[in-house]
Amino acid sequence: MRKKKYEPGDYKLLVKRSSAGLGLFAGEDIPRGVCLLEYKGKVISEREEYTSRSKYLFGVSAKKTIDGAGRSNTARYINHSCHPNAEVEIFKGRIWIMAKKKIRAGEEICYDYGREYWDEHIGPRGCRCLKCKTKSPRA
Fold first, then answer.
1. What's 74's domain CATH number?
2. Higher confidence at residue 110 or residue 134?
3. In terms of DSSP bridges, do strands 57-61 and 86-91 run parallel, antiparallel, or are they unpaired?
4. Is 8 domain-assigned?
């Protein structure tokens, strides 16, 4: 039976130290284009969204936001990169992390968090991704 596009593979993923704190790493080679995992969490109200101090909020749509702060959400450990090897796809109100390119065993899994997150949380501190190494904020 053929696997569905939005069905995570059974890949070995490891939470380890990274340049930005904790990160998610490939425990084995992962092919390009596969679904790695789902970003999961509690669906929060608009009011909670504006009062929350969580750094794990993910806007699914204009009316749906997920707080992925729970440690059972393995995707919360994926860090930002200006040169990502994964990307986010939103399908049927769910958030999927997909391999943008082949990810080698031991490589950190990362995706671009987007401009809004950058402006709210990274900003003047500068990017700490492997590409930037805190040199300067991206333009």
1. 2.170.270.10
2. 110
3. unpaired
4. no
Q: What is the pTM of this model?
A: 0.86
Mean pLDDT of the chain: 88
pLDDT of residue 136 exceeding 60, the answer is no
113 in any annotated domain: yes
Please check whether residue 89 lies inside any domain of the structure.
yes
Domain range for 112 is 13-125
| DSSP secondary structure letters along 6-28 | TS-----EEEEEETTEEEEEESS
> Is residue 46's pLDDT more than 90?
no
84 touches 110 (CB < 8 A): yes
Long-range contacts of 130-133 (CB under 8 A, 24+ apart): 130/19, 130/81, 130/83, 131/81, 131/82, 131/83, 132/82, 133/19
Total residues found in the chain within this entry:
139
- CA atoms of 81 and 79, how far apart (whole Å): 7
How many domains does the chain contain in total?
1
Long-range contacts of 57-62 (CB under 8 A, 24+ apart): 58/95, 60/90, 60/93, 60/94, 60/95, 61/90, 61/93
Average pLDDT over residues 120-129: 70
